[in-house]
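Readers of this paper often ask what the protein records in our data store actually look like. The remainder of this section carries one protein's record, kept here as part of the documentation.

:::
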Amino acid sequence: MKKQLLIVDDELSILKLLNFVLSKEYDLIIKNSGVEALSWLEQGNDPELIISDLHMPYFDGSSFIRNLKISGYYRDTPVILLSGADDLEDRVSKMNFKVESFMQKPFNPTKLKAVITDLLTRKNDFELSN
C-alpha cells in the first residue's frame, strides 16, 4: 500500500510536476489552498507527510503549517515547505514552529524524492521506538 502525501499548492505547473515525480510511489492528495487542506484533515485524514507552498491566497502555507503544528494531532507529521521566495531560509528560521525541510522553487525532483524518503524513514523509526 502506498504512503499518502498531502500536497498543498495553488500553482498548476508545480502540482503537475509533483504528480509526475511522486505519483508512482505515493498516493497523492492534492489541495489548492490551506483552507481546502485543513478541511480535508478535519475529516479525519492522516497523511504520512505534507508538502506545502509558502505563498497561497486566503490562507498561506505559513498559517496552514502553524495551525497543524499547534494542533496536537499533526504536530509530528513531517512538512516540506516549497517557495519561490529568495529569502526562504531566513523566513523559515524566524517561524515559531518546526518545518522539517524546505526547498526553493524550482526544486530538483531527485533531491525532493530523497528528502521525502529520509523524512518518512525517520518518522517510521521514531514511531517504532515509541
